[in-house]
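quick q for whoever's on today - can somebody do inverse folding on this one?? i tried earlier but teh output was garbage lol. tokens:
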């Protein structure tokens, strides 16, 4: 992967943020803009890093029979997986693999789906390189292929794998616990409530995040239109 491939993640997130009136930053962004931002820690530049903002969210989970009595259209949880690899990022045995390799496998297996079945992907985009790792760990592309995979605009509006559709942590909002916002955006997309950023025909969405002391834990959830 090249710095330009990482920059594509930031540009994709910003392109979605431009469609979200609640996004913190909505100004157009280009790969050249990202490459011109200050280098913080090679290969990450300022615009490769998430926002520092606050926020919150809530979800309600209920049995199928109760959910169908709700005013809003219910969304099904098809599968979920969790994994804990180590205590701290400094203990990572391999920085090219995250615990998402296990959580994604378990969630997709429980849901009975393949990566090609996913209509919307909501990854935890704390840094641009993280999204590349998730794409590989969850099987959307092979190891070492994520850079080329995203360079074709697959994650942007109109792409084959719409991702970070709220604008993500890079452009929409990044509270301390972004995971709840990933689930909320996935639900909105599957319900058809995302307004200008709605992905046409979205039926299956995947929310995926890492946590702990950086890339030490992972959780994957597969949601579907009821």
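ok took a stab at it. sequence:
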């Amino acid at each position: 992967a090249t710095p330009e491939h990482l920059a594509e993640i930031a540009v994709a997130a910003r392109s979605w943020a431009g469609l979200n009136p609640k996004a913190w930053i909505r100004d157009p962004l280009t790969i050249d803009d990202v490459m011109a931002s200050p280098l913080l820690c090679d290969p990450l530049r300022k615009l490769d890093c998430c926002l520092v903002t606050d926020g919150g969210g809530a979800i309600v989970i209920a049995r199928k029979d109760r959910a169908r009595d709700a005013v809003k259209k219910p969304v099904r949880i098809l599968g979920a997986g969790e994994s804990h690899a180590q205590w701290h990022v400094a203990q990572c045995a391999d920085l090219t693999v995250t615990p998402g390799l296990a959580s994604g496998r378990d969630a997709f297996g429980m849901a009975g789906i393949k990566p090609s079945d996913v209509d919307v992907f909501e990854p935890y985009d704390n840094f641009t390189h993280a999204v590349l790792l998730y794409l590989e760990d969850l099987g959307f592309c092979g190891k070492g292929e994520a850079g080329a995979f995203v360079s074709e605009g697959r994650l942007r509006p109109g792409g084959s794998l719409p991702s970070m559709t709220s604008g993500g942590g890079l452009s929409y909002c990044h509270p301390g616990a972004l995971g709840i916002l990933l689930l909320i955006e996935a639900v909105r997309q599957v319900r058809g409530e995302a307004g200008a950023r709605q992905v046409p025909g979205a039926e299956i969405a995947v929310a995926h995040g890492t946590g702990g002391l950086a890339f030490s834990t992972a959780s994957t959830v597969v949601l579907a239109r009821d």
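fwiw The helical segments are 3-17, 31-36, 64-67, 100-111, 128-137, 146-151, 168-172, 179-191. also The first strand starts at residue 39 and ends at 41. so keep that in mind when u check it
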